């Protein structure tokens, strides 16, 4: 199953392409993007290339990782994904990342809203969840715009640069999303 292209006012959400590597590497290397996205920047371009090639190979197996392409210039500026998709339990987890140069334009809210709609309407999900660091207030606001409710806190769940950090859990159920 290949994921479909989706479209918003400012973005085209589509599968990654080989030609996206430079744009992918650009945002994935930014420490500000990586730290808010719960990963470590790649140690080298070689390691990033291997990971990128692996991501491309996952699409035939149901990988739901949309590249965010800005309509205005055609640049791949980030990603939005449904991960941990479980059709039996009708649930998935949403995550996203955006090139720092495009922060503050509402692109992630736009993309995440589109992906949540796809999850509920097309995949017939009952629950979409997300995890976020408590100090990532921009992401917390996005999750709240998606009508997600804070369900809990995993205390000292992730270690980043030797520091144990809490992770907040958010989720929205289809019933709550439909009435909003």
Describe this structure in words.
The chain is an alpha+beta fold and 180 residues long. It has a domain at 6-128: Aminopeptidase (3-Layer(aba) Sandwich). Helix content is 32%, strand content 34%. The protein has 6 helices and 8 strands. Strands 1-2-3-4-5-6-8-7 form an 8-stranded mixed β-sheet, with helices on both faces. Strand 7 and strand 8 form a beta hairpin. The longest helix has 15 residues, at 107-121. The chain is globular. The mean pLDDT is 93.
Across the major sheet, the strand order is: 1-2-3-4-5-6-8-7
Query: What is the level-2 CATH architecture name of the domain at 6-128?
Result: 3-Layer(aba) Sandwich
Q: Give the N-to-C terminal Cα separation.
A: 30 Å
CATH superfamily of the domain at 6-128: Gcn5-related N-acetyltransferase (GNAT)
Instruction: Give the CATH class of the domain at 6-128.
Output: Alpha Beta
Low-confidence stretches: none
Number of strands: 8
Approximate shape: globular
Q: How much of the residues is beta strand, in percent?
A: 25-35%
The H/E string reads EEHHHEEEHEHEEH
Radius of gyration: 16 Å
